[in-house]
């Protein structure tokens, strides 16, 4: 042992000399240094990782002579007052013959986890890799003689999982760290005056060289996850220097905020000030609201990080899935812990929960990975996550009446069950609230996800729809009475149902688009009306607004949008025909909405505006309404859209209104 220790000392001195003269080996290779956003991108998209607390503390499992230590079993050396000599018996007993790195990584991957963080060394000081700096590791002090870190890193690489390691700054075993504080190894947490004056030597000659080994011998490291920074011995100057030291060796690795001294208790985020670290680390907590910085909530499945068979306080699979969704909805990552036993096996309760989470993520993963924090207020029934063009509604509490009230700022194009892409969920407007109509039964007992495709922000108004057609149109001849019909599906379908009307009147141009709201039409008005230089515009709008297709909107706002189009027409010397909204008793896509009375009220306001401004009011309504305020059955192909007979009535009415408009000064 003495000869080996001398060999290690020589190797350490050689490493120090080499680093002093030529720099670190990995900095000699040309590693492209990424920007902070690019460096953090994989981590921000991953959302879900596995924490593994494993070491010789898995042998006693939190129990000594019938006494159970409080809190985590990994703290047994401190909690149950082991001397260093007494604790050193456990490495000799640590022979985890059931350990299989490939199986561990497979379980993480099948659960939907994207990265693994393994404890290379916890506070007890025992290392899970072949350290040349110390004999207190798995190769030299245990009968196992296998490098756990090496096997896990290789298994992760094979299976496409990002390998990361945890490392404790505190060390209860090392005489230059906290090894001299028995029986209270952790006294320096509460009393910052309790320090080891030799700690700077430990930091320089032991802590940093061991971390360097882990960064240089095991390939690319995704995250270096520190802990134990709370001791008074460790300074913020050390933390900043340590961060730079790590980034010099592996420029693109990510380091948590516990590398420095800024962490504010268990909420894990930094106090105000200039502190090193790339993300915050809430522990066993989920912030009440989102945080405007990177963060990751680490959490146990029961109450202990290390293996503790006496702890039966297991969180349910449902709770863990909802925690994942809650964290992701607030912009964070979820690092969920496993505490393997002394043989290298995951507890069966942990395996059961991993399998349940895997079942859920395989179906619903797209609503988690690569998503952003919800921009909307948290609903009572669950959480939102968001991607470009999509919002995911995660329903924790399925509404008994089948009506899911969602945020009115969400502009819905299509809603469906995520687990059934072919499904179509109807959206309605009920008492000013935007509602998605759901099946009676929740498709998933844990969390059901509704996928909401949004109206495109890039071309929400469908400006591209007629761009080519408009470009082909020649300017109207001097004597041509060009007319543009501006509207929604009722106007659009006119060409399909009764195209002869436009063929017989070639100066009439149809610019109706199915699904258009008045606000979309207003945005299109310049390019699809004004730029075509018509003599007259016929404005027919309102139905989609009333159906809530673009979110809740009041009748007054609908009228304002229609009148704004009329004002634009007037400013550009275009005569205006304001068409009434057609009668409708219901909408097939929103059966709960009863629009008949709203249509009457809007038409009344439009007619009054037309009269006050000497515009032509085109009354389709009176000729097409039935005795129950709906569209006459013989004139409609449904309760909203006219059929051929309906358009045959509308055509002459429109022509007469246009004729009157052209005569106006």
From TrEMBL:
Top class in the EC scheme: hydrolase
UniProt cross-references to SMART domains, sorted A to Z: Alpha_L_fucos (SM00812)
EC number annotated for this UniProt entry: 3.2.1.51
Domain Glycoside hydrolase family 29 N-terminal as annotated: residue spans: 29-366
All residue ranges annotated as the SGNH hydrolase-type esterase domain in the record: 485-649
Domain Alpha-L-fucosidase C-terminal: from-to ranges: 383-445
Annotated signal sequence range: 1-25
Keyword annotations: Glycosidase, Hydrolase, Signal
Source domain of life: Bacteria
Protein task: Alpha-L-fucosidase is responsible for hydrolyzing the alpha-1,6-linked fucose joined to the reducing-end N-acetylglucosamine of the carbohydrate moieties of glycoproteins.
Family stated for the protein in its record: Belongs to the glycosyl hydrolase 29 family.
Protein name, UniProt field: alpha-L-fucosidase
Organism the protein comes from: Flavivirga jejuensis
């Amino acid at each position: 042992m003495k000869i080996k220790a001398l060999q290690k000392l020589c190797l350490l001195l050689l490493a120090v000399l080499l680093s002093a003269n030529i720099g670190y080996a990995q900095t000699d290779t040309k590693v492209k240094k990424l920007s902070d956003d690019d460096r953090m991108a994989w981590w921000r998209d991953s959302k879900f990782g596995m924490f593994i607390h494993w070491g010789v503390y898995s042998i006693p499992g939190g129990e000594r002579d019938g006494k159970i230590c409080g809190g985590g079993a990994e703290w047994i050396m401190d909690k149950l007052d082991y001397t260093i000599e007494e604790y050193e018996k456990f490495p000799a007993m640590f022979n985890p013959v059931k350990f299989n790195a490939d199986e561990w990584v497979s379980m993480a991957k099948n659960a939907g986890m994207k990265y693994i963080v393994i404890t290379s060394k916890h506070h007890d000081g025992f290392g899970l890799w072949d350290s040349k700096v110390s004999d207190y590791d798995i190769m030299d002090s245990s009968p196992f003689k296998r490098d756990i870190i090496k096997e896990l890193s290789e298994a992760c690489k094979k299976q496409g999982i990002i390998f990361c390691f945890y490392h404790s700054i505190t060390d209860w075993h090392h005489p230059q760290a906290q090894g001299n504080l028995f029986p209270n190894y952790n006294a320096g947490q509460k009393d910052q005056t309790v320090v080891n004056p030799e700690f700077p030597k430990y930091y320089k000659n032991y802590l940093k060289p061991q971390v360097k080994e882990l960064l240089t011998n095991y390939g690319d490291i995704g995250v270096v996850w520190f802990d134990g920074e709370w001791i008074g011995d460790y300074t913020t100057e050390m933390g900043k220097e340590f961060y730079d030291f790590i980034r010099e060796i592996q420029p693109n690795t990510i380091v948590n905020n516990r590398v420095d001294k800024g962490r504010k208790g268990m909420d894990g985020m930094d106090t105000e000030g200039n502190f090193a670290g790339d993300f915050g680390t809430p522990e066993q907590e989920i912030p009440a609201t989102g945080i405007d910085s990177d963060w990751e909530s680490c959490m146990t499945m029961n109450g202990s990080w290390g293996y503790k068979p006496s702890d039966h306080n297991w969180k349910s699979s449902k709770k863990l899935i909802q925690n994942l969704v809650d964290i992701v909805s607030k912009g964070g990552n979820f690092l969920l812990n496993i505490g393997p036993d002394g043989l290298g096996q995951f507890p069966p309760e942990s395996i059961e929960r991993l399998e349940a989470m895997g079942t859920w993520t395989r179906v619903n993963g797209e609503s988690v990975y690569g998503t952003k924090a919800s921009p909307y207020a948290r609903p009572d029934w669950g959480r939102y996550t968001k991607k470009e063009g999509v919002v995911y509604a995660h329903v924790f509490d399925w509404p008994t009446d089948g009506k899911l009230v969602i945020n009115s700022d969400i502009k819905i194009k299509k809603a469906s069950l995520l687990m059934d892409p072919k499904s179509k969920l109807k959206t309605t407007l009920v008492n000013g609230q935007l509602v998605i109509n759901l099946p009676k039964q929740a498709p998933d007992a844990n969390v059901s996800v509704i996928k909401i495709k949004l109206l495109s922000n890039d071309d929400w108004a469908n400006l591209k729809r007629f761009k080519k057609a408009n470009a082909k149109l020649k300017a109207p001849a001097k004597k041509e009475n060009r007319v543009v019909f501006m509207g929604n599906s009722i106007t659009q379908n006119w060409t399909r149902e009764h195209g002869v009307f436009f063929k017989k009147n070639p100066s009439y141009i149809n610019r109706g688009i199915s699904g258009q709201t008045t606000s979309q039409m207003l945005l299109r008005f310049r390019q699809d009306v004004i730029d075509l230089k018509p003599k007259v515009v016929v404005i027919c709008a309102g139905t989609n607004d009333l159906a809530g297709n673009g979110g809740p909107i009041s009748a007054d706002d609908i009228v304002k949008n229609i009148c704004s189009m009329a004002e634009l027409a007037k400013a550009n010397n275009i005569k205006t025909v304001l068409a009434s909204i057609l009668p409708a008793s219901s909408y097939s896509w929103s059966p709960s909405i009863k629009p008949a009375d709203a249509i009457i009220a809007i038409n009344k306001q439009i007619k009054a505006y037309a009269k006050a401004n000497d515009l032509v009011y085109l009354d389709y309504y009176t000729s097409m309404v039935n005795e129950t305020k709906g569209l006459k059955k013989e004139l409609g192909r449904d309760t909203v859209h006219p059929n051929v007979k309906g358009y045959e009535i509308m055509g002459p009415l429109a022509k007469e209104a246009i004729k009157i408009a052209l005569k106006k000064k």
